[in-house]
Write a structure and sequence with these properties.
Bound molecules: flavin-adenine dinucleotide
Strand order of the largest sheet: 5-9-4-1-2-3-10
Oligomer: single chain
Number of helices: 10
Largest sheet: 7 strands, parallel
Length: about 325
């Protein structure tokens, strides 16, 4: 007898471990989502026991803690086999992955192996009145939203955007089951191997976690003005972002790109300088609480979404703004 017939029986979260150990914040967000879908929430993760305990404190009922040398030192092919074995064992109605490089790599391959459907870049996942899994996802460069349904009795795979669900507060008193397992990895099917890990040196707050983001676009005209943006972000305790045009021009690393094909951010304050506000850019920042735009063109699209807009040349506006912020900070 099931206690919650309005939910599917099980939802499985494919967990991710952050580089400094412990679960990635995205895994907590997926657990929060999974709790709204499945009566039982399972998490599968390649990692240490602490990660499993953390998953339980965040709302998992069962954690498949995957280990073994072939897996831990293996690449994505080995991980794929391991996660496939968990899906085959638990038969979830929904499998949730985060929209990360790992999720984008695993999701489609896992769906192909399972012979089931996958929805990419989901901004929401739910159940319809018949209990079928549904999802919404932006299409046509963020200009329209598609609602998709996975159909009855299917295992649906969804790759979910970051920051659309809020990770729950950890409750260390929660209990759950940890199933430690070393799935069999077929070496003939594990052709991609991890040779070495290179950590990108990062300073300051992660773009996705920052409460204040200052982004620059093509209107800046070159890489140098990003120094001013960096100073402003530093004074406001935030991070620097960019439009794709600025990244493509090589003025700043692609890791800083905000948008459809970049990062999704939801800061309290988003300041844009020389960004037109193309739909593909807005797809990554429209969840910002307050957008402040500096742009010389009063008909720029960014002004439609901004709470405060300054029509003017950034070369005049930005130094004055910076000077005022500096002064206020020194008080
Ligand atoms: P522009 O559109 O060229 O805008 C520059 C702005 O600067 C203008 O509005 C101009 O008025 C202003 N300006 C110029 N000089 C000054 C000055 N002196 N002072 C103040 N303002 C000035 N884009 C993203 O950002 N992120 C994505 O993830 C992304 N993904 C994409 C995915 C696809 C499939 C496609 C097709 C496109 C994608 N794009 C993305 C690109 C997007 O369509 C735009 O081309 C891009 O966002 C434009 O960047 P921009 O606003 O910096 O440049």
């Amino acid at each position: 007898e099931r206690g919650r017939p309005d939910l599917i029986e099980r939802a499985l979260v494919i967990g991710d471990v952050a580089s400094d150990s412990g679960l990635d914040s995205g895994t907590g967000e997926l657990i929060a989502l999974a709790r709204t879908l499945g009566e039982t929430v399972d998490v599968a993760v390649i990692g240490e026991r602490e990660s499993a305990a953390q998953a339980i404190s965040l709302g998992a009922d069962r954690v498949y803690l995957l280990g073994g040398e072939a897996l831990v030192n293996g690449g994505s092919d080995a991980a794929l086999q391991a996660f496939e074995s968990v899906v085959n064992e638990t038969r979830p109605g929904a499998v949730l992955l985060a929209k990360t490089d790992a999720g984008a790599d695993l999701g489609p391959r896992l769906a192909a192996r399972l012979g089931t459907a996958l929805a990419q870049d989901c901004t929401s996942v739910g159940l319809d009145s018949d209990g079928n899994l549904t999802a919404t996802r932006p299409v046509y460069g963020g200009n329209a939203v598609a609602r998709v349904s996975f159909g009855t009795g299917q295992t649906g795979l969804a790759i979910v955007r970051g920051k659309v669900y809020e990770a729950p507060e950890a409750d260390p008193s929660r209990t759950g089951e940890i199933i430690e397992t070393s799935p069999e990895i077929d070496p003939a099917r594990a052709r991609v191997r991890s040779i070495r890990k290179v950590e990108q040196a990062a300073t300051g707050i992660r773009l996705e976690d920052a409460a204040v983001v200052v982004s620059g676009g093509r209107g800046l005209g070159g890489p140098e003005p990003f120094e001013q943006l960096t100073e402003l972000a530093g004074l406001l305790g935030g991070a620097v972002g960019a439009s794709r045009a600025a990244c493509d021009a090589g003025w700043i690393d692609h890791a800083s790109q905000v948008g459809l094909t970049g990062k999704t951010i939801t800061p309290e304050l988003y300041i844009t300088v020389g960004i037109s506000g193309a739909s593909q850019h807005m797809a990554g920042c429209s969840g910002s609480k307050n957008i402040v735009a500096i742009n010389s063109d009063d008909s720029a699209n960014i002004f439609k979404d901004s709470r405060y807009g300054v029509v003017g040349d950034w070369k005049a506006v930005l130094p004055a703004f910076l000077a005022t912020v500096r002064e206020l900070r020194n008080d």
